[in-house]
Amino acid sequence: MIKKYIPVITIDGPTASGKGTVAQLVASKLGFHYLDSGALYRLVTLSAINNNVQLDNELELVILIKKLNYNFLGKEVYLNGVNVTTLIRNEKVSNNASKIAKFKNIRKELFKIQVKFRKFPGLVADGRDMGTTVFPDAFLKIFLTADIKQRTKRRYKQLMQKGFSVSMSDLLINLIKRDIRDKTRNLSPLKCPEQAHLLNTSKMNINQVVNQILDWYKYKKN
Ligand code: C5P
């Protein structure tokens, strides 16, 4: 039997580059499935915190992933039946997620979960290594960037809307530290995949970014 190709659009980029919102909208416009790979790293982190597992204990973290009871329902994320959509976005989880992301066996386990999201009629996947490592044969690869000031402002707004109180200067420092960790780790570091469309969203609104990606997709398809 000939295996049919399932198209994937990968949207990678640093924290607060807007990739989550954009990826969800692109997926919904195309009727594709959606993978928020960062949420998986966040779920492992939250689960470790809840179970008193040390965040540098790679073996225990892998055991945790094998037992991870999670569910994505639309925009909502559940852990053991509890809605953790807001909780996984707090700064403690955010900062620690990028620390556990350096472990080889954690990435290996999460890779197995991520590839299963590839289903008909297609998938939009966002993260750091979607185009480089998880879906290297993706139909379309996008790399989103935005200047650090814009990203800090966006992240500040998101956190305030979710009821978290944070200072802009702390946020800026956290973003810079996470960028460094994500870009300099040995395994699947954050980088622009070959053949990706690079899009700086600093001066663009969400709709402009979504429409640009849909245009690239339609152009390539035809
Ligand atoms: O995208 P998000 O900010 O939710 O990701 C949280 C963290 O998970 C990132 O800072 C990164 O360290 C890690 N991550 C990763 N590879 C991915 C997605 C996220 O290493 N594909």
Automatic annotation (TrEMBL):
Biological source species: Candidatus Profftella armatura
Primary location group: cytoplasm
UniProt KW keywords: ATP-binding, Cytoplasm, Kinase, Nucleotide-binding, Transferase
Keyword Cell membrane: no
HAMAP family assigned: Cytidyl_kinase_type1 (MF_00238)
Record domain Cytidylate kinase: where: 9-217
Entry protein name: Cytidylate kinase
Location of this chain's protein in the cell: Cytoplasm
BP term (GO), one: pyrimidine nucleotide metabolic process
Domain of life: Bacteria
